[in-house]
Amino acid sequence: MWLPAPYYIANFALLASYVPWRLSLPAAALTGQAMWLEGVLTREMEVYCVVVVLILTRVRRSASWEEVLRRAITIAKFAELALLYMMDRRVFGAYLVLMALLFLMPAPRRDDDPNVKPLTELEFASQVRKATGDDAATPTWLVCFTADWCEDANLFRPIFSRLAAKYGGAPRAGRRFAFGLVDVVYSREVAREFQINDTYMTRQLPTVILFHRGREIRRLPAFKSDGSVVGGRIAYEDAVSYFELDSSKPSFMRRQKGAKRTKKDAWELSEALGGESAAALRHDAAPPRPWPLQPPQVRRGI
After folding, report:
1. CB neighbour class for 60 (10 Å; exposed up to 12, middle 13-18, buried from 19)
2. For 205-215, what is each residue's pLDDT tens digit?
3. Which residue among 29, 31, 133, 155 has the highest number of C-beta atoms inside a 10 angstrom radius?
4. Are 100 and 69 in contact (CB under 8 A)?
5. How much of the chain exceeds pLDDT 70, in percent?
6. CA distances from 58 to 24, 156, 239 (A)
7. Is the pTM of this model over 0.70?
8. Which residue, 80, 65, 71, is CA-closest to 13?
9. Which helix (H) or strand (E) holds 141?
10. What is the largest CA-CA distance in the chain?
11. Are 182 and 146 in contact (CB under 8 A)?
12. Neighbouring residues of 203: CB distance < 8 A, sequence distance ≥ 6
Protein backbone atom coordinates (compact mmCIF):
# COMPACT_ATOMS: atom_id res chain seq x y z
CA MET A 1 0.00 0.00 0.00
CA TRP A 2 1.52 3.32 -1.11
CA LEU A 3 -0.51 5.75 1.04
CA PRO A 4 1.62 5.25 4.22
CA ALA A 5 4.74 6.19 2.20
CA PRO A 6 6.72 9.17 3.60
CA TYR A 7 5.94 11.15 0.44
CA TYR A 8 2.18 11.13 1.11
CA ILE A 9 2.51 11.53 4.89
CA ALA A 10 4.66 14.64 4.49
CA ASN A 11 2.38 16.17 1.87
CA PHE A 12 -0.79 15.52 3.86
CA ALA A 13 0.89 17.03 6.94
CA LEU A 14 1.73 20.18 4.97
CA LEU A 15 -1.83 20.45 3.67
CA ALA A 16 -3.22 19.99 7.20
CA SER A 17 -0.96 22.74 8.54
CA TYR A 18 -3.12 25.28 6.71
CA VAL A 19 -6.00 24.75 9.15
CA PRO A 20 -4.36 26.24 12.30
CA TRP A 21 -2.93 29.10 10.24
CA ARG A 22 -6.35 29.82 8.78
CA LEU A 23 -7.91 29.92 12.26
CA SER A 24 -5.22 32.09 13.86
CA LEU A 25 -4.23 34.59 11.15
CA PRO A 26 -6.28 37.63 10.09
CA ALA A 27 -8.50 36.58 7.19
CA ALA A 28 -10.01 39.86 6.08
CA ALA A 29 -8.39 39.50 2.65
CA LEU A 30 -10.05 36.12 2.16
CA THR A 31 -13.55 37.39 2.88
CA GLY A 32 -13.36 40.11 0.22
CA GLN A 33 -15.26 39.99 -3.04
CA ALA A 34 -14.19 37.45 -5.65
CA MET A 35 -12.46 38.65 -8.80
CA TRP A 36 -14.66 36.77 -11.27
CA LEU A 37 -17.96 36.34 -9.41
CA GLU A 38 -18.15 39.58 -7.47
CA GLY A 39 -21.06 39.65 -5.06
CA VAL A 40 -21.55 35.89 -5.26
CA LEU A 41 -18.38 34.35 -3.82
CA THR A 42 -15.60 35.41 -1.50
CA ARG A 43 -11.98 35.16 -2.60
CA GLU A 44 -11.47 32.05 -0.50
CA MET A 45 -14.50 30.32 -1.99
CA GLU A 46 -13.32 31.34 -5.45
CA VAL A 47 -9.98 29.62 -4.88
CA TYR A 48 -11.76 26.47 -3.68
CA CYS A 49 -13.92 26.43 -6.80
CA VAL A 50 -10.87 26.72 -9.03
CA VAL A 51 -9.25 23.83 -7.18
CA VAL A 52 -12.29 21.60 -7.70
CA VAL A 53 -12.44 22.42 -11.42
CA LEU A 54 -8.73 21.69 -11.90
CA ILE A 55 -8.93 18.37 -10.04
CA LEU A 56 -11.96 17.25 -12.06
CA THR A 57 -10.09 18.14 -15.24
CA ARG A 58 -7.18 15.99 -14.11
CA VAL A 59 -9.51 13.07 -13.37
CA ARG A 60 -10.58 13.02 -17.02
CA ARG A 61 -6.98 13.04 -18.23
CA SER A 62 -5.45 10.59 -15.76
CA ALA A 63 -4.90 6.89 -16.24
CA SER A 64 -5.01 5.84 -12.56
CA TRP A 65 -6.32 7.02 -9.21
CA GLU A 66 -2.78 7.34 -7.89
CA GLU A 67 -2.06 9.86 -10.62
CA VAL A 68 -5.23 11.76 -9.69
CA LEU A 69 -4.14 11.85 -6.04
CA ARG A 70 -0.68 13.23 -6.84
CA ARG A 71 -2.11 15.90 -9.13
CA ALA A 72 -4.72 16.84 -6.53
CA ILE A 73 -2.05 17.21 -3.83
CA THR A 74 -0.02 19.53 -6.06
CA ILE A 75 -3.06 21.67 -6.93
CA ALA A 76 -4.13 21.89 -3.28
CA LYS A 77 -0.65 22.99 -2.16
CA PHE A 78 -0.57 25.82 -4.68
CA ALA A 79 -4.09 26.86 -3.64
CA GLU A 80 -3.09 27.04 0.03
CA LEU A 81 0.01 28.97 -0.97
CA ALA A 82 -2.14 31.57 -2.72
CA LEU A 83 -4.45 31.87 0.30
CA LEU A 84 -1.53 32.29 2.69
CA TYR A 85 -0.09 35.01 0.45
CA MET A 86 -3.29 36.99 1.00
CA MET A 87 -3.19 36.45 4.78
CA ASP A 88 0.46 36.76 5.87
CA ARG A 89 3.59 37.08 3.72
CA ARG A 90 5.88 35.56 6.38
CA VAL A 91 3.80 32.41 6.69
CA PHE A 92 3.60 32.37 2.89
CA GLY A 93 7.41 32.33 2.73
CA ALA A 94 7.68 29.49 5.24
CA TYR A 95 5.06 27.44 3.36
CA LEU A 96 6.91 28.06 0.08
CA VAL A 97 10.16 26.74 1.55
CA LEU A 98 8.41 23.60 2.83
CA MET A 99 6.83 23.06 -0.58
CA ALA A 100 10.23 23.33 -2.24
CA LEU A 101 11.68 20.74 0.14
CA LEU A 102 8.80 18.34 -0.53
CA PHE A 103 9.34 18.64 -4.28
CA LEU A 104 12.77 17.11 -3.67
CA MET A 105 11.23 14.10 -1.93
CA PRO A 106 10.85 11.16 -4.34
CA ALA A 107 7.39 9.73 -4.85
CA PRO A 108 6.87 6.04 -3.97
CA ARG A 109 7.63 3.50 -6.66
CA ARG A 110 7.13 -0.24 -6.99
CA ASP A 111 10.65 -1.50 -7.56
CA ASP A 112 10.21 -4.75 -5.64
CA ASP A 113 7.40 -6.19 -7.76
CA PRO A 114 8.07 -9.95 -8.04
CA ASN A 115 6.06 -10.14 -11.26
CA VAL A 116 8.17 -7.56 -13.13
CA LYS A 117 11.79 -8.34 -13.97
CA PRO A 118 14.26 -5.44 -14.33
CA LEU A 119 16.29 -6.06 -17.49
CA THR A 120 19.81 -4.94 -18.28
CA GLU A 121 21.03 -4.75 -21.87
CA LEU A 122 22.56 -8.23 -21.61
CA GLU A 123 19.45 -9.71 -19.99
CA PHE A 124 17.25 -8.10 -22.63
CA ALA A 125 19.34 -9.70 -25.38
CA SER A 126 19.48 -13.13 -23.73
CA GLN A 127 15.90 -13.38 -22.48
CA VAL A 128 13.68 -11.24 -24.70
CA ARG A 129 15.47 -11.56 -28.04
CA LYS A 130 16.14 -15.27 -27.68
CA ALA A 131 12.58 -16.15 -26.65
CA THR A 132 12.01 -17.65 -30.11
CA GLY A 133 10.41 -20.95 -29.17
CA ASP A 134 6.85 -21.86 -30.09
CA ASP A 135 5.86 -23.82 -27.00
CA ALA A 136 3.85 -22.70 -23.98
CA ALA A 137 7.01 -22.42 -21.89
CA THR A 138 8.41 -19.67 -24.14
CA PRO A 139 6.97 -16.37 -22.93
CA THR A 140 5.62 -13.48 -24.92
CA TRP A 141 7.33 -10.44 -23.40
CA LEU A 142 5.69 -7.17 -22.49
CA VAL A 143 8.52 -4.72 -21.80
CA CYS A 144 8.11 -1.25 -20.30
CA PHE A 145 10.80 1.31 -21.12
CA THR A 146 11.02 3.82 -18.29
CA ALA A 147 13.24 6.28 -16.42
CA ASP A 148 13.35 7.26 -12.75
CA TRP A 149 13.28 10.99 -13.54
CA CYS A 150 10.08 10.74 -15.61
CA GLU A 151 6.94 11.33 -13.54
CA ASP A 152 4.62 9.87 -16.17
CA ALA A 153 6.69 6.69 -16.24
CA ASN A 154 6.61 6.41 -12.45
CA LEU A 155 2.84 6.91 -12.43
CA PHE A 156 2.49 4.07 -14.93
CA ARG A 157 4.39 1.62 -12.71
CA PRO A 158 1.31 0.61 -10.63
CA ILE A 159 -0.66 -0.03 -13.83
CA PHE A 160 2.13 -2.18 -15.24
CA SER A 161 2.31 -4.05 -11.93
CA ARG A 162 -1.41 -4.79 -12.12
CA LEU A 163 -0.97 -6.19 -15.61
CA ALA A 164 1.95 -8.35 -14.48
CA ALA A 165 0.07 -9.60 -11.42
CA LYS A 166 -2.88 -10.77 -13.53
CA TYR A 167 -1.25 -11.96 -16.74
CA GLY A 168 2.29 -12.90 -15.73
CA GLY A 169 3.46 -16.23 -14.36
CA ALA A 170 1.73 -19.49 -15.29
CA PRO A 171 0.54 -20.01 -18.89
CA ARG A 172 -3.01 -18.90 -19.68
CA ALA A 173 -4.85 -20.57 -22.57
CA GLY A 174 -1.57 -21.96 -23.88
CA ARG A 175 0.22 -18.62 -23.67
CA ARG A 176 2.69 -17.32 -21.13
CA PHE A 177 3.46 -13.66 -20.59
CA ALA A 178 6.59 -12.27 -19.00
CA PHE A 179 6.88 -8.64 -17.90
CA GLY A 180 10.13 -6.72 -17.99
CA LEU A 181 11.34 -3.23 -17.11
CA VAL A 182 14.12 -1.45 -19.02
CA ASP A 183 15.61 1.74 -17.58
CA VAL A 184 16.63 3.85 -20.60
CA VAL A 185 19.21 5.71 -18.50
CA TYR A 186 21.27 2.51 -18.09
CA SER A 187 20.19 0.82 -21.35
CA ARG A 188 20.57 3.61 -23.88
CA GLU A 189 21.58 1.31 -26.72
CA VAL A 190 18.38 -0.69 -26.39
CA ALA A 191 16.34 2.53 -26.26
CA ARG A 192 18.04 3.85 -29.41
CA GLU A 193 17.53 0.55 -31.20
CA PHE A 194 13.78 0.78 -30.66
CA GLN A 195 13.73 4.51 -31.41
CA ILE A 196 12.73 5.65 -27.94
CA ASN A 197 13.61 9.27 -27.27
CA ASP A 198 15.11 9.41 -23.78
CA THR A 199 15.57 13.18 -23.51
CA TYR A 200 13.77 15.32 -20.92
CA MET A 201 11.33 16.63 -23.58
CA THR A 202 10.26 13.17 -24.69
CA ARG A 203 6.67 12.01 -25.01
CA GLN A 204 7.71 8.37 -25.33
CA LEU A 205 8.14 7.49 -21.67
CA PRO A 206 6.77 5.14 -20.69
CA THR A 207 6.80 3.01 -23.84
CA VAL A 208 5.39 -0.53 -23.66
CA ILE A 209 6.43 -2.96 -26.40
CA LEU A 210 5.07 -6.46 -27.02
CA PHE A 211 7.71 -8.98 -28.15
CA HIS A 212 6.69 -12.33 -29.63
CA ARG A 213 9.34 -14.86 -30.66
CA GLY A 214 12.02 -12.28 -30.03
CA ARG A 215 10.71 -9.48 -32.24
CA GLU A 216 8.57 -6.42 -31.74
CA ILE A 217 4.89 -6.80 -32.58
CA ARG A 218 3.31 -3.56 -31.40
CA ARG A 219 3.83 -0.72 -28.96
CA LEU A 220 2.23 2.07 -26.98
CA PRO A 221 2.53 4.99 -27.50
CA ALA A 222 2.36 4.43 -31.22
CA PHE A 223 4.05 5.96 -34.22
CA LYS A 224 1.70 7.76 -36.57
CA SER A 225 1.95 7.24 -40.31
CA ASP A 226 4.07 10.41 -40.64
CA GLY A 227 6.63 9.20 -38.11
CA SER A 228 5.49 11.31 -35.17
CA VAL A 229 4.50 9.89 -31.80
CA VAL A 230 0.93 9.75 -30.56
CA GLY A 231 0.49 11.47 -27.21
CA GLY A 232 -1.73 10.34 -24.34
CA ARG A 233 -1.67 8.13 -21.24
CA ILE A 234 -1.65 4.34 -21.24
CA ALA A 235 -4.57 3.08 -19.18
CA TYR A 236 -5.02 -0.46 -17.86
CA GLU A 237 -8.00 -1.26 -20.08
CA ASP A 238 -6.25 0.11 -23.18
CA ALA A 239 -3.20 -2.08 -22.60
CA VAL A 240 -5.30 -5.22 -22.07
CA SER A 241 -7.30 -4.58 -25.23
CA TYR A 242 -4.50 -3.41 -27.50
CA PHE A 243 -2.01 -6.12 -26.57
CA GLU A 244 -4.83 -8.73 -26.60
CA LEU A 245 -3.87 -10.08 -23.19
CA ASP A 246 -7.23 -11.78 -22.70
CA SER A 247 -7.28 -13.39 -26.14
CA SER A 248 -6.51 -17.11 -26.42
CA LYS A 249 -5.42 -16.70 -30.05
CA PRO A 250 -4.34 -13.10 -30.69
CA SER A 251 -4.01 -11.69 -34.19
CA PHE A 252 -0.22 -11.65 -34.17
CA MET A 253 -0.19 -15.42 -33.56
CA ARG A 254 -2.68 -16.04 -36.36
CA ARG A 255 -0.56 -14.16 -38.90
CA GLN A 256 1.07 -16.45 -41.42
CA LYS A 257 4.82 -16.71 -41.51
CA GLY A 258 6.45 -14.68 -44.25
CA ALA A 259 3.40 -12.45 -44.79
CA LYS A 260 4.43 -9.06 -46.08
CA ARG A 261 3.44 -5.86 -44.40
CA THR A 262 1.86 -3.09 -46.39
CA LYS A 263 1.48 0.64 -45.98
CA LYS A 264 -1.90 -0.03 -44.39
CA ASP A 265 -0.04 -1.47 -41.42
CA ALA A 266 0.96 2.05 -40.34
CA TRP A 267 -1.05 3.51 -37.52
CA GLU A 268 -3.34 6.30 -38.59
CA LEU A 269 -4.79 8.57 -35.94
CA SER A 270 -6.40 11.98 -36.16
CA GLU A 271 -3.99 14.83 -36.81
CA ALA A 272 -5.68 16.65 -33.94
CA LEU A 273 -3.89 14.34 -31.50
CA GLY A 274 -0.58 16.02 -32.30
CA GLY A 275 2.74 14.25 -31.96
CA GLU A 276 6.46 14.46 -31.45
CA SER A 277 8.49 14.96 -34.61
CA ALA A 278 10.43 11.89 -35.70
CA ALA A 279 13.42 14.19 -36.20
CA ALA A 280 13.66 14.44 -32.40
CA LEU A 281 14.29 10.69 -32.20
CA ARG A 282 17.94 9.82 -31.99
CA HIS A 283 17.80 7.11 -34.65
CA ASP A 284 18.24 7.29 -38.40
CA ALA A 285 16.07 4.34 -39.37
CA ALA A 286 12.43 4.72 -40.32
CA PRO A 287 9.86 4.00 -37.57
CA PRO A 288 8.97 0.31 -37.31
CA ARG A 289 5.64 -0.60 -38.85
CA PRO A 290 3.31 -2.24 -36.33
CA TRP A 291 0.99 -5.08 -37.15
CA PRO A 292 -2.44 -4.15 -38.51
CA LEU A 293 -4.52 -3.48 -35.46
CA GLN A 294 -6.56 -0.39 -34.73
CA PRO A 295 -4.76 1.41 -31.87
CA PRO A 296 -6.82 2.59 -28.90
CA GLN A 297 -7.99 6.15 -28.65
CA VAL A 298 -5.97 8.45 -26.42
CA ARG A 299 -7.09 7.80 -22.86
CA ARG A 300 -9.05 10.70 -21.36
CA GLY A 301 -10.18 9.13 -18.08
CA ILE A 302 -9.46 6.43 -15.55
Report:
1. exposed
2. 899 999 988 88
3. 155
4. no
5. 70
6. 32, 15, 20
7. no
8. 80
9. strand 140-146
10. 76
11. yes
12. 197, 221, 229, 231, 275, 276
